[in-house]
Every structure is written in C-alpha cells, then in structure tokens.
C-alpha cells in the first residue's frame, strides 16, 4: 500500500479477479464501469463484465406461483449496457494476454485524489517483444456521459508495427444467480442492438430494452499519437476499429473516448452522442485528469476525515467516501443504488439505505448532492400515491421498498412491501436536511408534500386501541422478523413523521397561510386531518418491557425462543441462505439493527438506561448478516460508553469491501455500509446529533487513535473538529454564529471562533 489515497493490487490471484472488478470500478453517478480487463481474461476465469447507467432499466415480469391482490406484476432492473471496454494489442499476430508470455511487472491502482484507475503492465510476448503499458481510465465528473480509456504503450526492445483493435459490443448480458436473493434472477438477455454505424472514424451502437423500450447508445472516437492506418469492421452486434500503428515511435498514446447517452435523459441519443464524441475527444486526456482532480479536491476539502492511527483504516475510510461520491446520482431521476454502479447486486434498486445510511453524509458534507437525492423522492411521489391506493389505502403515499422509477419492485412482501418504515425514513431525512441546513425554501418546495403524504399512511394503517395509537402487520428493518404488530422502530419513526407533519403545518399556517391554502387545494390537507396526526403521535404506542427495562422489537418478539447460536455452524451464516424464512421468523434473532437503530435516530424518546439495556439485549442476538448492521451498533456502542466495542464494529464497516468480509463484493460494493463508516465516526466517536436548535457533539476518541479531524457544514458554515485524547477543538470557519453543544454545555460559536473543551 503506497499511501491511503491509493488502493492498489499487485496480484493476479484468480480468486480476487471478480471482487477486484467491483473494487476498481470507475463511476460518476451516471455511468459506472467495472474494473474488467480491456483484453479480457482467459475463458476459464469467471468475469462479470459490466457497464451500468444509473436508473437505466428494463421492466421484467414477475412470475408468482400464487399471486395475490396488489402484488407487483413487474419490476425494474438495472441493465448491463453496451460494452466499450474492449481493446486488444496484437504483436506478431499474437494478442496480448498477461496470463500468457512473461509478466515482469503488474499493478492496478485507484487514485482517489485524481479520480483515475490505472493498470500497469510490463510484459514480454511469447516471441520476446517487450512492452510497458499504462492504462488509465476515468468516468468523468465534468462530462457525465464520458468513459475514457488512455493507453500509454512503450515498445521496449523492438520497433515493428503493432496492431490495436478497439471494439464496442452490444453482445451483453446481465448477471444472474437464482440461488442468491441478493442478486438478479430471471432473464440475462435484456438489450438488443438496433443499429451499428461507422462514420468519420466514429463508431456507434444503439441498443434497446425489450419491454421498457429504453434506448442506450455508445459513441466512440479514438485519438492516437502515432501514424496509423485504420480499418473498420462490424458484425450484427459489434463494431471494431483496427489500427495498424506504424514503426518509428517508441511511445504510443492511444485514447478511446466513449460517450454514453440514454433515452431517459437525452432527446436524441444518436446525434447528442455524436456531437459529444466529436467535441469531448478534442480535450486532451491530461486535461480531463486535471479537471477530475479539481472536482475531487472540492469534495475532499469538505468530506475528508483524518485519523492519526492505522493507515489501512484511513484508506478504507477514504475508499468508502470516494465510492459514495462516485456512485451518487447527479440528476433528479436517479438515486444511489445499494451497490453503487459497481455491480448488479440488488438489481440497481434504491432502498431506505439512502435516507438512513447515506444521506446523513451528503447532508453534512455535500448538501448539493443531498438535495438531488431528496428531490428524487419528491419526483416519485405520484407513483407512491398510486401504490397507496393499490394497497387499499384511501389516501397518502406508500413509498416502494425497492425501486428504480418509483414502482414497487419487491416480490417478497414480508421483507419488502411490509417495510412501511421507509415512509418514515424518507420524512426523517427531509427533516434532517432542514435542521442541518435551515433551508426552509427547499422544504416548502419539495418536502412538505412528501411529509404530509407519508404521514397520512400511518393513519391509514394504524388505529386507536384503548386510547393508544397502534400499527399492526408491518416489518421493521430487521428482516429476520416479519409482519408483526407495533414494531418499535416503525412506531417511533411514524411518531416523528406525524409530529413534524403537524408542526410544519402549524408553522406554515402562521407564517405563510397563502401557501397552506394553495397546498390544501392541491392535496386536500385540512386542519382536522392535522389534528388527527397530532392525536396519533401524542398517543403513539411504543412497546416497553417492565421486567427487562428494554423496548421490545415488537409485541410478540420477547415471547419467542432465542435462536440456538451455540449450535449454528459458522458456515450457516448468513442465515437467509441456509434456512427457510419461517424457521428464522420463529426465533429471537436479528439480521440487523432495529430497535438499536431507532434509539440512535430518535434518541430523545426514551431514557438512557433503556437505550443501554436494549443495546445489551439485542447485541447478543444480532447476526449482522446485513451489511447495514455494524455501523448502527458502532454508533450506539459509542453512545452507551463501549468505545472498544464501537471501534470493533467500526473496523467491520471500514474495510468491508476492500477485504471482502461479506464474501459478496463481486456483486458490487455496499454503499449503505460505506455511509455507515462515516456515521460510526461522526455520529459515533464524535457523538454528533442534529437537534432542533443546535448541533451537538459528545466526543469519545478510541484508545488506539491519537487524533481525529473532520469537518461538516452546519447552516452553511464550515465547522472543523479536531479531537485528541484530552481535548476537542472546534472552529467555525463560516460567516454566521452557530449554537453548538459539547457534552452538556451550550456554546455560541461565531465566525472564526475556536472553542476548546476538555474531554
Ligand atoms: C437489508 C436491507 C437493505 C438491503 C439493501 C438487505 O440485506 O436487510 O435493510 O435495505 O439489503 O441494502
């Protein structure tokens, strides 16, 4: 490991090839390309050769054995689009393959400051010709349609001609695995080629999905520094440019500019692709790298965290933040998928992962991208309303558990549609954005409707029972327990949702009655309904067990037997791959944090000792089979004072993908966990919370660290925190005064002011 900014690999270990395809993906929130080899591996090695466009989908029918009312008929699925990675170098009629001939040196490196992935090869062909090749790739953050590959080829000991064959291919398939519910199933062949053209040294393939009729094009132009002759070839699925590079130059630069356009965002995929290919291919590669680095330096300036301590952890942390930045959608129709744009796990779907695990980072470190994620939910509100009707509700919005365009894609409702908490999670994230930024205009324009419509669902699915408001037949975040009454997490998030809906209604009615009148007309919200919201949240039933002094996960949870952990062999985890769901549902066993997560999100609801007792209780019976679990346990271990344990859980999150600890990084990186790493530090070790009138910190540095430095934006002010073993310093580098509470003391921190607190 050179340094924390560079993730590298020097091996050609066949067991790591698939994982490294995900690790070395290059993405920009629009397109993502797995770290495949341009020249491919020998056939005997498995590969998932993939290129994805965020939110570009196919509609695939869902077949059920026993289909019941309002089950979704079809689902959207991310598409493995046209492949533009293929480049072959041919010497003496022999294609370069680093698995043949002699490999003198090999490395692959992801440079997280430059935003560039580089593979270096020093290779001797079977006929003794020696080549040094440096291949750089980037998915441009400034030109989102661009995926560029740059070859720097040095002919070490010869000067004969070489041939470079560069192709684009519409012969692509999605990856499927019928035995793993976390991966795609069904049909692999989704795209068919509409046209292939070769004109003015530009190659273009246009393909289309069968059902949704979404169109994608790749338009490719090359630039070569040496004298060459070029011929083109095409088949019904591929276009190829064959460059014969004349002798005379020791070093050859060859650049492949690939422009991806799709019918969801581009009025004409063909002409826009051509125009962009012509204009963007005029930008030298070095310039693209320079602007990429500038773009990233703005990001790192706000987001970077510095830990004095273990370098591997520092690298893991940077990698996770970098991947989030690469993966997040840059337009209002796309969000951030569970696997980013690095693989096909969870079929390119968006989940509650965004709101609860990823948005906190963007809200506090890069709010302009946070806004896009929130607007996405606003944009799909219409479909969420439609889904509420389908589900038999009279009003409100039922956000889909998993989706791309806004329609429910979950075919297993106990661990899908039943997770109504997603409504509360979405409302919660709008409020967090508001409290952190103070941006009430945004809430007015894109938030209020969502907050009211999500609140309505609780009235639809809940009821008053002996004066208490109860919510039956839902599933909480823990998918190892399904369809229960009064899941603590759901009820507490519903309470929060209803409370803020009433509060914002009252505030706006007083301040901007004109707007409330207009909104009432639009969504028919009236005083009477808001008073019902109020009554429901004030009487919300939150399960509590007198004997254990904990919040039970739901009404029946504590009556079940505890899972036999002692006699469960380690190879039987994750349980979901080894037991029927009903077996799992019968026991007290958690896939992931549930009540413990609720105690983090809405911590003022219960006393500290209940939070601590609950932590102790649930920690023993949680498998962490979901990658969303460890971060929540780390944050809450910090909260209850188990700093060593918090550190242990934090480590689990920091290198989850780099070290492939869940064994499925091949299907893509785990974006929620990546957000969780940041949260374990900022919400965990620094104890940050966003309250209504202030932001608070409660620092607890892990024993092994000397120092922790991080920054965040609070109401537009850049706040920098430096935590040492004995003291914490906080500087307000912004322009306005903020209210900050550290431990139990409230400070007013004006511009440029630094405060110092003993830990
Ligand atoms: C988790 C869900 C999560 C999904 C996507 C599942 O394994 O249980 O909570 O939303 O993965 O990351």
Give the structure's gist in a few sentences:
The protein has 759 residues and is α+β, with helices and mostly antiparallel strands. The chain has 18 helices and 32 strands. The longest helix has 24 residues, at 488-511.
Your description of this structure?
The protein has 759 residues and is an alpha+beta fold. Among the domains are: 7-60 and 76-274 and 285-298, Distorted Sandwich (Beta-galactosidase, Chain A, domain 5); 362-543, Glycosyltransferase, CATH 1.50.10. Strand 11 (130-139) and strand 12 form a beta hairpin. Helix 4 (311-327) packs across helix 18 and helix 10 (488-511) runs parallel beside helix 14 (595-601). The chain is globular, with a radius of gyration of 27 Å. Beta-D-glucopyranose binds next to loops. Substrate binds at residues 352-353, 591-592. Pfam families: Glyco_hydro_65C (PF03633), Glyco_hydro_65m (PF03632), Glyco_hydro_65N (PF03636). GO terms for molecular function: carbohydrate binding; glycosyltransferase activity; hydrolase activity, hydrolyzing O-glycosyl compounds.
Q: What is the CATH domain class of the domain at 7-60 and 76-274 and 285-298?
A: Mainly Beta
Biggest sheet: strand arrangement: 1-9-10-11-12-19-16-15-14
CATH topology of the domain at 7-60 and 76-274 and 285-298: Beta-galactosidase, Chain A, domain 5
Tally of separate helices: 18
Computed structural class? alpha+beta
What's the CATH architecture name of the domain at 7-60 and 76-274 and 285-298? Distorted Sandwich
Q: Would you tell me the overall average pLDDT?
A: 96
CATH homologous superfamily title of the domain at 7-60 and 76-274 and 285-298: Glycoside hydrolase, family 65, N-terminal domain
Helix content: 25-40%
What's the story with the biggest beta sheet? 9 strands, antiparallel
């Amino acid at each position: 490991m050179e340094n924390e900014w560079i993730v590298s690999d020097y091996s050609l270990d066949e067991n790591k090839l698939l994982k490294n395809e995900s690790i070395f993906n290059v993405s920009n929130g629009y397109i993502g390309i797995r770290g495949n080899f341009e020249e491919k591996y020998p056939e005997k090695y498995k590969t998932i050769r993939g290129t994805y466009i965020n939110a570009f989908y196919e509609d695939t029918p869902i077949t059920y054995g026993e289909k019941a009312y309002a089950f979704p008929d079809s689902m959207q699925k991310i598409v493995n689009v046209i492949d533009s990675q293929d480049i072959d170098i041919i010497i003496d009629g022999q294609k370069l393959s680093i698995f043949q001939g002699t490999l003198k040196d090999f490395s692959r490196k992801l440079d997280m400051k430059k935003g560039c992935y580089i593979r270096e090869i020093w290779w001797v062909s079977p006929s003794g010709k020696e080549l040094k090749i440096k291949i750089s790739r980037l998915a441009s953050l400034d030109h989102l349609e661009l995926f560029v590959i740059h070859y720097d080829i040095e002919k070490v000991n010869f000067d004969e001609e070489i041939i470079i064959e560069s192709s684009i291919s519409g012969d692509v398939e999605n990856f499927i695995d019928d035995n793993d519910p976390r991966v795609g199933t069904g049909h692999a062949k989704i795209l068919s080629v509409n046209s292939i053209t070769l004109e003015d040294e530009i190659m273009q393939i246009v393909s289309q999905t069968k059902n949704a009729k979404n169109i994608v094009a790749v338009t490719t132009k090359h630039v070569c520094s040496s004298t060459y002759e070029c011929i083109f070839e095409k088949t019904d699925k591929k276009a190829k440019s064959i460059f014969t590079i004349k002798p005379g130059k020791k070093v050859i630069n060859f650049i492949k500019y690939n422009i991806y356009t799709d019918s969801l965002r581009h009025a004409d995929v063909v002409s826009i692709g051509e125009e962009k290919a012509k204009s963007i291919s005029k930008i030298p590669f070095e310039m693209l790298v320079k602007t990429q680095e500038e773009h990233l330096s703005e990001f790192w300036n706000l987001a970077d965290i510095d830990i004095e301590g273990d370098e591997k952890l520092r690298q893991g942390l940077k990698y996770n933040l970098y991947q989030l930045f690469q993966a997040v959608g840059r337009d209002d129709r796309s969000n951030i998928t569970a696997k980013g744009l690095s693989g096909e796990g969870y079929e390119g779907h968006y989940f509650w992962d965004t709101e609860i695990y990823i948005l906190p980072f963007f809200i506090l470190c890069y709010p302009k991208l946070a806004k896009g994620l929130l607007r996405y939910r606003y944009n799909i509100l219409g479909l969420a309303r439609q889904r509420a009707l389908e589900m038999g509700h009279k009003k409100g919005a039922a956000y889909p558990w998993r989706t791309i365009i806004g329609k429910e894609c979950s075919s297993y409702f106990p661990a899908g549609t039943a997770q109504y908490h997603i409504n509360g999670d979405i409302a919660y994230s709008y409020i967090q954005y508001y409290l952190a930024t103070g941006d009430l205009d945004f809430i007015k324009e894109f938030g209020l409707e969502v907050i009211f419509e999500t609140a309505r669902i609780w009235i639809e699915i809940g009821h008053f029972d002996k004066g208490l408001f109860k919510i039956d037949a839902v599933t909480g975040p823990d998918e190892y327990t399904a369809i229960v009454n009064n899941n603590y997490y759901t009820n507490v998030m519903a309470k929060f949702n209803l409370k803020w809906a009433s509060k914002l209604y009252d505030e706006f009615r007083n301040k901007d009655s004109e707007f409330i009148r207009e909104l009432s007309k639009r969504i028919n919200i009236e005083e009477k309904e808001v008073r019902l919201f109020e009554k429901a949240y004030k009487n919300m039933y939150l399960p509590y067990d007198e004997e254990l002094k904990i919040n039970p996960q739901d009404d029946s949870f504590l009556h079940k037997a505890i899972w036999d952990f002692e006699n469960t062999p380690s190879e039987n985890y994750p349980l979901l791959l080894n037991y029927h769901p009903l077996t799992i549902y019968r026991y007290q066993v958690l896939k992931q944090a549930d009540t413990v997560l609720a105690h983090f999100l809405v911590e003022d609801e219960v006393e500290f000792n209940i939070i601590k007792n609950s932590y102790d209780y649930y920690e023993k019976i949680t498998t962490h089979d979901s990658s969303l679990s460890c971060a929540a346990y780390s944050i809450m271990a910090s909260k209850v004072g188990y700093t060593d344990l918090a550190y242990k859980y934090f480590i689990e999150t920091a290198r989850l993908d780099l070290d492939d600890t869940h064994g499925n990084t091949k299907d893509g990186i785990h974006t929620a966990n990546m957000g969780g790493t940041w949260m374990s530090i900022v919400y965990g070790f620094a104890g940050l919370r966003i309250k209504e009138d202030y932001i608070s910190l409660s620092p607890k540095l892990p024993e092994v660290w000397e120092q922790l430095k991080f920054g965040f934006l609070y109401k537009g002010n850049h706040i920098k925190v430096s935590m040492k073993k004995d003291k914490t310093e906080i500087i307000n580098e912004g322009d306005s005064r903020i209210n900050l509470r550290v431990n139990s003391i409230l400070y007013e921190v004006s511009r440029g002011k630094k405060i110092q607190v003993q830990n």
